[in-house]
Amino acid sequence: MSWDHLQLKPQIISAVQRAQLKSVREVLCVSGPDLQKMTGLSRSDVQELLHAAATASRTHQPVTALQLQQGECHRLESGLRLSTGCPVLDQLLRGGLPVGGVTELSGESGAGKTQLGLQLCLSVQYPVEHRGLSSGALYICTEDPFPIKRLQQLISEQSVLRSDVPRSLISGLQFSDHIYIEHTADLDSLQVCLSRRAPLLLAQGLVRLIVIDSVAALFSQEFTTPILCINQVTDVFNQSANSLSSSSSSVCPALGLAWANQVMVRLMMRRLQGKVFLGDQSSALRRLEVVFAPHLARDSRDIGVWREGLRAVLDPD
């Protein structure tokens, strides 16, 4: 395509052509820092390029057909769930994470929240008959670097965790190719990611799961996508006066009632005393609890984190 119609400065057009970026969509599918590396442009020039590309995308992108089909998609997929990869946890959640809604996973540092987020990024790539959504995931990091080594370990152990899936299918899935990673260090960059790149990836069908580690704006209603928001916790000083917290915890999810009203499902993960064992592995005992959800009972399951991922512990003793 010609970039001249975007009315960009000549040096920006030349840099984009040298980087062999041939379309608006290709530009919008690359983060700002990566665009700087690819093109050698300054930060202000990259922002100008992204703004122009986003404007052109809104003008020319055929989103209308998707919007016209929105009601039908909601009707057909109202009962669709994304598996956690563990049958016992799926039972707790009546099949897994609901599409078209926001699931908040809160807990203290080291409780295992990111582990579940990574596991869902792999689970979403399985076909629907294996409780996936046949698509990729967008993982937005707002604090820590993306745990790439742990992801690679989970990928290598998928045949252990998902023994219900044929090995030939697992080996044919290129898991790492379908996880899109964004780093947002401040509110401005988070807003850019959520307002530009995420809708484009969703509209193109490249992702069907968004994980924000931690906290997010919402795209679930338009794209029938499960959103997992990882949240921190704060101390509870008056347990009886706080309905947001777990019944068995002295902490509650951060951000309070205004944020709570955006959440369809609230889960809490805690690290408990003691260890559990599986073969040659050991794990700190953890617990995943349903704090509230319109379709779920308030219940919990004990879990461990293993090489292959997060799984329920049926008998901690």
From TrEMBL:
GO molecular function: ATP binding; ATP-dependent DNA damage sensor activity; four-way junction DNA binding
Any one Gene Ontology BP term: telomere maintenance via recombination
Keyword annotations of the record: ATP-binding, DNA damage, DNA recombination, DNA repair, DNA-binding, Nucleotide-binding, Nucleus
SUPFAM superfamilies according to UniProt: P-loop containing nucleoside triphosphate hydrolases (SSF52540)
Record's subcellular location: Nucleus
CDD domains: XRCC3
InterPro entries referenced in this protein's UniProt entry, alphabetically: DNA_recomb/repair_RecA-like (IPR016467), HHH_XRCC3_RAD51B (IPR058766), P-loop_NTPase (IPR027417), Rad51_C (IPR013632), RecA_ATP-bd (IPR020588), XRCC3-like_C (IPR047348)
GO cellular component: Rad51C-XRCC3 complex; replication fork
Name this polypeptide is given: RecA family profile 1 domain-containing protein
Organism: Crenichthys baileyi (White River springfish)
